[in-house]
């Protein structure tokens, strides 16, 4: 009895102590730290009065359930027509409910900010907070110091590679940026523009054959007429063009040029020229609107529009141009958003009631420029788009296993490593590699060459690899484990055998016919294969594809078995029978895909 009394008295005392000392005053400890990636040098302290827009990612209450539903969604559609959720995707509100932080999380973080005199502004799911603060204030809030870092290409950002939080908040906040992310979106277009007449590519092969493909396909300038014959979409009438939409995203100040889209459609889809005049261009976070461009800009955006419209001009097309990552201007006292812009775009998209069924993105960066905590949260935002029934496609990169001369780990030790790209390494999106040639298609590879106009073009190979952040997802475990086993130890130590591996699928990606600045030429890259794939899939949208692709849909793909992910000065992962980290499960055989999907839907 006595013991028990003493014990509860002690509890009461302890509780009073806790109450007397507000939890918000708990000590600080390191929350996250990330090595400064190669190529960046610390210059000086960031000016104290420089105002930045800070994003705080609160822990989501039930992401595990969202992931479960996402992974089950399409396989459910395919395997169990009797299931009550058959053919359904989550609504915007259902998604928000799953990611909404717990009351405890919201209250603790809110309390911490208000005690610091900060009025937070929330997104509608309440899992992200945005605040504009001067550097001095962020420094005291995160117990850190911001410095200006300069990239060897001249770009400048204000960053804090390590940052701290009160102990009691560690489990309630996933990430705060910009702090230690050095990510920058890079367009994956390998040849900005090559005149058809000036190709001197020694590896180029023409394949005149007796089949229909030989009549319309020419490797030196691949047209929509070739794609529709090769992937057998010709004559397919997309359904629900009053409801479905297909979109592409632009960053780095890019936006598509309508007059070039018109020239392209006049030549290849003359009955749909008006599409180029009328497709909407959404401007997000001060991105560029419709209007003139400086010569040399917007190759990627032009390509994206033309690749989609060439293969499917009937489903309405949308262009999203997101601002962000502007050059650092120290004298600027207006808030600058120097986050990587995906988060800005995806959080904007998630606020919309209705979103496109297919969205193509051709921008990525080395995965190791992003802290894992941040990559995970951005990837989780993509999962929410997938759970709403949208196919998100990302290009797999243009440098095989990694860019020549840059394949060094960010581990601080300088270990040689292949360099996977983010976001293609995110398991909640579908990553697209590239092929070239016809009958058979092989891995897109084009060694560096100098055109007859004297312009140098670097090495280009379909990108692929294994994430160092994301674990191998269940839907591809069998294929990836099997692939790794068959490598028999080759490249051991250069990659993470347990990582999410990409790409998932592939399509043509060398010398696309396209128009830029009034002239016809060609352009190459997984930047080309990705919008092409988006156009094909938008003919028959299927939602988040991966679980279905690996379990069933692969039967509707042409397996690519020749070539490899050349990069880092080695041949890289070879394409093999079945899945491989260069061309994924293969390229579309559209009627087969439709049949496989339709048969079970
Ligand atoms: C393919 O295109 C190139 C360049 O336009 C041309 O020189 C060549 O004759 C074409 N090949 C075939 C088989 O049509
Ligand atoms: C292309 O890759 C080869 C090795 O595969 C390398 O020798 C060459 O320097 C690379 N060229 C460029 C422009 O990076």
From TrEMBL:
Entry-linked Pfam families: Peptidase_S8 (PF00082), Pro-kuma_activ (PF09286)
The keyword Repressor is annotated on this UniProt entry: no
Residue numbers annotated as active site: 300, 304, 527
Keywords: Calcium, Glycoprotein, Hydrolase, Metal-binding, Protease, Secreted, Serine protease, Signal, Virulence, Zymogen
Cofactor(s), by name: Ca(2+)
Intracellular or extracellular location(s): Secreted, Extracellular space
SMART domains: Pro-kuma_activ
Name of the protein: tripeptidyl-peptidase II
Lineage: Eukaryota, Fungi, Dikarya, Ascomycota, Pezizomycotina
């Amino acid at each position: 009895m006595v013991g028990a009394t003493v014990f509860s008295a002690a509890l009461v005392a302890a509780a009073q102590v806790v109450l007397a000392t507000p939890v918000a005053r708990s000590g600080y400890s390191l929350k996250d730290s990330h090595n400064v990636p190669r190529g960046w040098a610390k210059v000086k302290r960031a000016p104290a009065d420089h105002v930045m827009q800070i994003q705080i990612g609160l822990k989501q209450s039930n992401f595990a359930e969202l992931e479960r539903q996402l992974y089950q969604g399409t396989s459910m559609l395919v395997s169990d027509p009797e299931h009550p959720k058959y053919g359904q995707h989550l609504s915007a509100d259902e998604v928000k409910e799953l990611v909404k932080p717990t009351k405890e999380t919201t209250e603790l973080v809110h309390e911490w900010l208000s005690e610091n005199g900060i009025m937070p502004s929330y997104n509608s799911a309440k899992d992200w907070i945005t605040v504009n603060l001067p550097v001095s204030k962020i420094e005291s809030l995160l117990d850190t110091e911001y410095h200006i870092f300069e990239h060897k290409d001249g770009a400048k950002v204000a960053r804090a590679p390590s940052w701290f939080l009160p102990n009691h908040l560690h489990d309630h906040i996933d990430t705060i940026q910009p702090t230690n992310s050095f990510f920058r979106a890079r367009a994956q277009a390998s040849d900005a523009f090559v005149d058809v007449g000036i190709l001197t590519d020694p590896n180029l092969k023409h394949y005149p054959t007796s089949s229909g493909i030989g009549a319309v396909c020419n490797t030196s300038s691949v047209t929509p007429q070739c794609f529709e014959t090769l992937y057998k979409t010709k004559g397919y009438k997309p359904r629900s063009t009053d409801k479905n939409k297909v979109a592409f995203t632009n960053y780095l100040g890019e936006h598509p040029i309508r007059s070039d889209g018109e020239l392209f459609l006049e030549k290849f889809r003359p009955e749909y020229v008006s599409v180029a005049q009328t497709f909407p261009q959404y401007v997000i976070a001060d991105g560029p609107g419709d209007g003139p461009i400086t010569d040399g800009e917007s190759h990627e955006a032009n390509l994206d529009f033309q690749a989609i419209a060439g293969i499917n001009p009937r489903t309405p097309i949308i262009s999203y141009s997101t601002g962000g990552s502007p050059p650092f201007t120290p004298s600027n006292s207006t808030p600058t958003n120097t986050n990587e812009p995906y988060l800005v775009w995806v959080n904007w998209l998630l606020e919309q009631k209705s979103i496109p069924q297919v969205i193509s993105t051709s921008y990525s960066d080395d995965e190791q420029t992003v802290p894992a905590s941040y990559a995970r949260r951005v990837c989780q935002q993509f999962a929410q788009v997938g759970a709403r029934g949208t196919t998100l496609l990302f290009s797999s990169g243009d440098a095989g296993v990694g860019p020549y001369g840059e394949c060094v780990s960010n581990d601080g030790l300088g270990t040689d490593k292949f360099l996977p790209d983010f976001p293609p390494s995110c398991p909640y999106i579908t990553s697209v590699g590239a092929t070239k040639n016809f009958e058979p298609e092989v891995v897109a590879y084009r060694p560096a060459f100098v055109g007859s106009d004297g312009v140098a073009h670097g090495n280009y190979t379909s990108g692929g690899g294994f994430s160092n952040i994301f674990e191998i997802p269940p839907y591809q475990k069998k294929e990836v484990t099997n692939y790794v086993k068959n490598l028999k130890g080759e490249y051991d130590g250069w990659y993470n055998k347990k990582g999410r591996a990409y790409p998932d699928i592939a399509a043509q990606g060398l010398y696309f016919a396209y128009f830029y600045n009034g002239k016809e030429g060609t352009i190459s890259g997984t930047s080309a294969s990705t919008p092409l794939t988006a156009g094909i899939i938008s003919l028959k949208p299927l939602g988040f594809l991966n679980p279905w692709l690996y379990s069933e849909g692969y039967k509707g793909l042409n397996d690519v078995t020749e070539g490899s992910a050349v990069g880092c000065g080695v041949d890289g992962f070879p394409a093999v029978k079945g899945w491989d980290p260069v061309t994924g499960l293969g390229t579309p055989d559209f009627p087969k895909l439709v049949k496989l999907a339709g048969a079970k839907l």
